[in-house]
Amino acid sequence: MLTPYGRSTILKTTILATAIAVSGLFFPPVATAFLVFSAAAILGFAFWFFRDPDRTPAETGRVILAPADGRVILVEEHDHPFTGSRSTLISIFMSPLNVHVNRIPQSGRITLLQYHPGSFNMAFDHKSMEENERMDIGIESDSLKVFFSQVSGFIARRIVCPLRMEELVEAGKRFGMIKFGSRVDIFIPQGSTPAVAVGGKTRAGETVIARW
């Protein structure tokens, strides 16, 4: 299954790959084989990168799900204006090899949605949380607030976020992506217990990253 967020990129890649393959017809056989192989590899990577597998939460109830596939690179206490004092920050680094479709971590209503232009530092550099281009998202339910950011990186220069203010969202559902690797930072309020540690792997919409 391919994500609709990648349709335009796949179309452009298909055109490019076709042009490369056709140009190979005008070269000697060895060069032709190389160009055709290169075109197939480029197209294959595009289809693989925009894959969008179905996911089922590992646990339901009073849990917060991972918003992104990747590796946990930070778990630490932070004060935050949306989630309050002594919140916990969990940062997930997404490499180009991960599934890049993001998912809602907690059911509720979108009460904060703000885009911030910025730089394109390496995503594993923690200063990217504040300096890089990002989309901030806040979700509120009757008993919980969750804040998370889609953060661009050195390679990732395209954040996709079709969410709308006051929209009702459901945990585990798809909502956007960051193209070609980056990070997602999520703040959970005091009273929530992290269920992941630095170095752990997450799967969006499936891995439980905290319980409350």
From TrEMBL:
Reaction equations catalysed: a 1,2-diacyl-sn-glycero-3-phospho-L-serine + H(+) = a 1,2-diacyl-sn-glycero-3-phosphoethanolamine + CO2
Bilayer topology: Peripheral membrane protein
Keywords: Cell membrane, Decarboxylase, Lipid biosynthesis, Lipid metabolism, Lyase, Membrane, Phospholipid biosynthesis, Phospholipid metabolism, Pyruvate, Zymogen
InterPro entries xrefs: PS_Dcarbxylase, PSD-A
Post-translational modification: Is synthesized initially as an inactive proenzyme. Formation of the active enzyme involves a self-maturation process in which the active site pyruvoyl group is generated from an internal serine residue via an autocatalytic post-translational modification. Two non-identical subunits are generated from the proenzyme in this reaction, and the pyruvate is formed at the N-terminus of the alpha chain, which is derived from the carboxyl end of the proenzyme.
Active site: S182
GO biological process annotation, one example: phosphatidylethanolamine biosynthetic process
Necessary cofactors: pyruvate
Pathway(s) served: Phospholipid metabolism; phosphatidylethanolamine biosynthesis; phosphatidylethanolamine from CDP-diacylglycerol: step 2/2
Site note Cleavage (non-hydrolytic), residues: G181, S182
Family: Belongs to the phosphatidylserine decarboxylase family. PSD-A subfamily.
Role description: Catalyzes the formation of phosphatidylethanolamine (PtdEtn) from phosphatidylserine (PtdSer).
Protein name: Phosphatidylserine decarboxylase proenzyme
Originating organism: Pelodictyon luteolum
Gene designation per UniProt: psd
